[in-house]
């Protein structure tokens, strides 16, 4: 697929992972239309990607991605859609069906419906799914298993809406959302095709300004892990369940671009996994690469079972079909930490400047 004069809709670009996807599509020469809720969100996205004028980056306001018809205007005259938006999980609710499951299903269904009805120029939709849509939590560490694209979270709609565990409902909603997309394609047979990218924990540099590191909910979930380790607030670092399948966020962006460009990626599901990492492995990298952090980091603890005691992951299909190579753990973790340290220095300087001005006023 040539990128000349082509416009891509990205349904959210103000968060950690989508901001990298926006960057790589711009660098590849595409024009990008970004869905935002507010003018402030649009300014945040614009400021994070300077050097591109309105002909390259435009915005469309969508207040509620769950509503039918929400994307009707957004999908007109675009050639591809990267669906990065997902309904925000509520912090505290017991209404799992109403607040978690139904929004996850409706948002993807209504997006595809809008593309089908109002986006005749769209040739491909790429949806950002999650490892949560794949994992079988009941199997636990499952050391004899290797996850790949054939795996699906076994929790049903009934389980998701009947459980008392919010995390279970959240994980199941990711599976139900992706299944909704594939079922739509099978039943409606639209002219565009579909690709899904299942993403585990992502590490790598940040491209979107974060309001405050002290409120680390603004960070991506993977970045929060590194941030917490750097501040000694993670807790126990060893143990058989303290590990993560991971990918570098920049590789997710590359995969999204390739998923749009590579013709034979049509109607494929990809698990984007570079490998696995224990928390102790993360600490070891930070100890070696950032000696100034050693006083903050948790003390090294003996491993209570290594990676041989937990499930493995296979992300090779994406490398083979999409034609890229994953970055390794060292690069992903080190570049995350570099960004966090730079943000810390900036915050400290701004705080010192503010205190100096305050003192000068008295």
TrEMBL record:
<keyword id="KW-0560">Oxidoreductase</keyword>
<comment type="similarity">
    <text>Belongs to the NAD(P)-dependent epimerase/dehydratase family. Dihydroflavonol-4-reductase subfamily.</text>
</comment>
<dbReference type="InterPro" id="IPR050425">
    <property type="entry name" value="NAD(P)_dehydrat-like"/>
</dbReference>
<dbReference type="InterPro" id="IPR036291">
    <property type="entry name" value="NAD(P)-bd_dom_sf"/>
</dbReference>
<dbReference type="GO" id="GO:0016616">
    <property type="term" value="F:oxidoreductase activity, acting on the CH-OH group of donors, NAD or NADP as acceptor"/>
</dbReference>
<protein>
    <recommendedName>
        <fullName>NAD-dependent epimerase/dehydratase domain-containing protein</fullName>
    </recommendedName>
</protein>
């Amino acid at each position: 697929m040539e990128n000349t004069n082509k416009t891509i809709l990205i349904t959210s670009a103000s968060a950690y992972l989508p901001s990298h996807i926006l960057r790589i599509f711009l660098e590849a020469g595409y024009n990008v239309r970004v869905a935002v809720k507010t003018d402030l969100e649009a300014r945040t996205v614009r400021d994070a990607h300077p050097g591109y004028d309105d002909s390259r980056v435009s915005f469309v306001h969508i207040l509620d991605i769950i509503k039918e018809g929400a994307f009707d205007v957004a999908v007109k005259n675009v050639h591809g859609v990267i669906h990065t938006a997902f309904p925000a999980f509520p912090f505290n609710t017991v209404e799992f069906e109403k607040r978690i499951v139904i929004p996850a299903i409706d948002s993807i269904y209504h997006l595809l419906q809008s593309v089908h009805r109002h986006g005749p120029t769209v040739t491909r939709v790429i949806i950002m799914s999650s490892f949560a849509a794949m994992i079988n939590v009941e199997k636990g560490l499952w050391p004899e298993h290797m996850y790949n694209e054939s795996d699906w979270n076994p929790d049903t709609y009934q389980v998701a809406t009947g459980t008392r565990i919010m995390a279970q409902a959240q994980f199941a909603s990711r599976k139900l959302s992706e299944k909704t997309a594939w079922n739509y394609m099978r039943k409606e047979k639209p002219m565009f095709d579909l690709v899904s990218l299942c993403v585990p924990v992502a590490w790598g540099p940040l491209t979107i300004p974060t309001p405050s590191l002290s409120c680390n909910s603004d960070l991506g979930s993977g970045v929060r892990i590194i941030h917490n380790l750097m501040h000694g607030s993670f807790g126990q670092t060893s143990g058989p369940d303290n590990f993560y399948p991971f990918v570098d966020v920049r590789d997710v962006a590359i995969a999204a671009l390739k998923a749009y460009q590579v013709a034979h990626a049509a109607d494929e599901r990809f698990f984007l996994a570079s490998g696995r990492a224990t928390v102790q492995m993360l600490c070891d990298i930070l100890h070696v690469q950032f000696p100034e952090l050693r006083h903050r980091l948790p003390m090294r603890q003996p491993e209570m079972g290594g990676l041989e005691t937990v499930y493995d992951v296979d992300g090779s299909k994406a490398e083979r079909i999409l034609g890229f190579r994953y970055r390794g753990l060292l690069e992903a973790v080190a570049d995350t930490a570099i960004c966090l340290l730079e943000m810390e220095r900036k915050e400290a300087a701004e705080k010192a400047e503010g205190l100096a001005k305050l003192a000068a006023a008295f």
